[in-house]
Amino acid sequence: xxxxxxxxxxxxxxxxxxxxxxxxxxxxxIRTVDARDSVTDALAIRDGRIVALGADARRLRAxxxxxxxxxxxxxxxxxxxxxxxxLGARWPHLFFSEDPHGHQPQGALVRTxxxxxxxxxxxxxxxxxxxITSYTEPGIGPGEDDGETxxxxxxxxxxxxxxxxxxxxxxxxxxLRLFGTLDGAADLAAFERGIAAPPPRTDPRWLAITGVKxxxxxxxxxxxxxVSEPYPDGTAGxxxxxxAGSALDAYRRMIATAISRGEQVAVHATGDRSIEEFLRVFExxxxxxxxxxxxxxxxxxxxxxxxxxxxxxxxxxxxQPLIAxxxxxxxxxxxxxxxxxxxWPLAAMIDAGALTTIxxxxxxxxxxxxxxxxASLALLGxxxxxxxxxxxxxxxxxxxxxxxxxxWKGSLEIGKVADLAILDADPVEPGHDVSGIGVxxxxxxxxxxFERDTARVD
Length: 458
Ligand SMILES: [Zn+2]
What we know:
This protein is an alpha/beta fold and 458 residues long. Helices cover 35% and strands 22% of the residues. It contains 14 helices and 18 strands. Strand 17 (439-444) and strand 18 (447-451) form a beta hairpin. The chain is globular.
């Protein structure tokens, strides 16, 4: 009985506050990334959620007003494949940067709990500065307990849990467990042992442990992507999985086991053969209805028929146009001009309506989504508003779909969480580089987590 009084009290309080907001954004362009790509001019936030848009928002009494002053608000960026622990431990060193002779850190990067926590906090501060409000940490777990860098083992999972339980909330994290090695071998027995242990309990709004990462093959420039048409030296790459009767049996059983346990499966697959076998497992068995969509990470050499089948299966692709830019010439040595021209088929993925997320794979490439945005337009060979809106959607709403969280994040719609970035200019307007646009403010769950120092010396 007492409980229902408390409950009714809560509803009453909410009704009394229905003409109030904590924060009102107005005076600029708000790109909602809703189904119609609507643009509005005001947005009201209450208790971390978007409660009204446009004229309805302007009618509310707001405790705080934020004048956009002609600037643009977009949904917070969701980098659906970003190694935050590794990024924070290496920062400011990236594998591909504008300075090809830049220092590359070697060996163990983090050794103590304090260093692991510091690496995550470093990454989170950087992401807040970039307007990134969600990301996927793709692969943390026992498979990397003896890993060289210290960035991907069980101890890093503990670091995540400690920050999470301590209430660190500047980014929403989706995390995939890893039972093999990063970019290396994965044994079926270790995978089956690992996945049998349930993931730690967390608040999925802030740390969602949705599935597993499996490494199928390597990369085309190293001629380690598993392909149907051989490389110039006659090899065709191979699977990295071991155990069972064959590498292929092990690979298929890992995917099938994860599906049967209701886990999301993310497979590092660049060659068309490894993508093919991934799709075949999904053609044979339907995923659990509650599991977020499974997906191919990279998908460099995905064929048009595979993209169409992925679309039909609700299997996605997490792609990296910046890595394409950095490795194109290198890949051409192995693939030749014609196959390279067909590689990284972002346009085909978008045109087919396949679930596609545009990601950085930082610290491989920069986590700066603005640079990735320009690389995406270059890959599409287009610079019109439609192409730009399509790229923005694949950095915001489609990643939320990949997270299985599109009902409550990823776009600026009533009822969704107030995760957004305020930019100096509109990235959807053609004719200028997105990499030149400044991030003014980042808001997560209605709270400002980054604000650019706007003091100007005239
Ligand atoms: Zn990666």
